[in-house]
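Take our chain:
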Amino acid sequence: MSDKTLDTSDLDRWIGKRLDDSVSFEPVGGNDIRRWVQAMHYPNRLHYDHVYAAESRFGAMVAPQSFAITADDGHGAAPACVGKIPDSHLIFGGDEWWFYGPLIKPGDMIHNERIPYDYVVKETSFAGPTCFQRGDNHYYNQHGDRIATQRSTGIRYRPDLAREMGALMTATEEPQWSDEELALLEDRKFAYIRTLHDLGHGKRLSGSVAVGQKLPTRVFGPHSVASFATEWRAYPMTYWAGMRRRQDGGMDDLGWVEEMSGHEQDPVMERINPELTDGAYYGPSRGHLFTRYARHIGMPRGYGYGASMGAWILDYLAGWAGQWGQVTHCNAQYRGPAFTGDITIMDAEVTAKTTDGEGRNIVQVKCTMKNQEEGVLATAKASIELPSG
């Protein structure tokens, strides 16, 4: 392509129209939840230790709030990636969440209603003309209880322009960590884990929290192809025939560049040769795990999933709130991915305390996610409900 335009003419016909459902064939299993928190580096015993969970206020294991996203067949981005944009690719731009109280438990059947919301084209230093597309996910359980609403942002761009502009291609080499540095990292990781143990089944009362208070720093990594593959496998959409696949405009109708297209989530090919439908190996998702394809779409090396970054934020905030609190709202913007070899460092600060219209005690926080070079990966603002006594 010689011009530098982005053809979004097909998108308008999708906006506001509910997509076909893609639902799991089986209820949530306890090991689905365990696999999820393990992949998301979230060692909260409430979500994997059945003995500990039995002693909790819930009396049994429950899923973290972040688990809702596993009910979508596209990392929550399905309604934010509809319509054909020729010779394009997609990365995640952010997520806004509203939570309504019900938690997901083993045995639940989760249903996701998906509606494309809007889009806008902006000029960026990353890839020139870039489409920022949003879509809504409404997550329900088998009783019809609304669990959460997620407004996801997909960033759709032309990889040829991203390669030409080379905004990220200066970071092609992975950082190297000495044994001593890795040992110190493990100490930092465990310092955060201890804060989860210290709170345990106790309550974090709103009266004990002050404006300006810092949340404990959370550190994990270094990320690797192995850790990113573990994340990928925690999404039920990656299981062979694990979900009923969409019929209204699948992955092959989105306009992916030839090198990143394929049969990912193709319900017909899944029955013939499921190897070809696995996005870890073929199709638009393989850029996360293979340097060759990462560079083809303008990334310097293997990189993590935007949906996982959103889960990291929700888990971090919900873990601090404890089992008697909950995240009620979170709006996160993703500035750049986690690359192989990098670590992720999360910090947050209490910015305000209020009482909402329902009489709930709400703590406002702002969160920042960085790598070891102080590069900002994501920022978020969130509301957390805490008990008064």
About this structure: Helices lie at 30-39, 50-54, 159-165, 179-199, 225-233, 269-272, 291-296, 306-321.
